[in-house]
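I have a small job for you when you get a moment. Can you supply me with one protein entry, sequence and fold together? It will help me judge whether the discrete encoding reads sensibly. Write everything out right here, beneath this request:
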Amino acid sequence: MKLPSPNLTDQTCYASIGFGFDAKNNDFKVVRLVSIFKGFDFEKDQPPAVEVFSLATGEWRMVTASLPPICLLHGCEPQAFVNGALHWLACKRSAGFKIHSFILVFDLEDEVFCEIQLPNISSELQYSVAVYGNYFVLLQTERLLCGGFQKLWLMEEYGVVSSWVKLLNCAFCLGEGIPRAIGFRRNGKFVFDFNQEEHVSEEFETQEIKDLLFTPCLCTLGDSYVESLVLLDKPANTAVTY
């Protein structure tokens, strides 16, 4: 299904995309967060503009009732849809002009924003968000001079910061390449991209690594899905007869 052009199409805009299902209104939605940043100048910067495409209406509309904070989203990283909400990694300036990383959350049903704090990790590390089963997880890469670590954090109780637990701490050497976490296979195995040269999966408990034997693209993303009988070329809130 090809979407119509969004309302905000300025080439200087910085857009992050999210997609998910609104169970309350039986509607699939695409969300765009659009920002123009000027070096975190609080006198000039504004919160990202928010627009939503609804499958039920087939149109884009602006969201003004709830706006996110002034923040910078990691636009190239995938979002995670879990618990009826979209999640993006973001950062903003806190007291003392320090950069504070957090997870920006947009509830698709009520269309309101909130924030979830990260576990106690350094903001200088590379990380991304994903879904593992029904849980919200954080994939973390820590690079060292001789190699590094790939870590997996899982939030056992959604929205409760104290429930972050570390499930995986996998070491790698410099000669092995630097893995980039992509997501999970259906059987729950961790999937890595090694320097855009190969994809491998790893078993949590045994840490057994398997080459998936396919050539990655320049920018590879992974996401979870749920099978559905919804026809994307038909409004989600109307009946389809045959």
In short: Residues 202 and 209 are 5 Å apart (CA to CA). The chain is about 0% helix and 45% strand. Residues 8-116 form one domain.
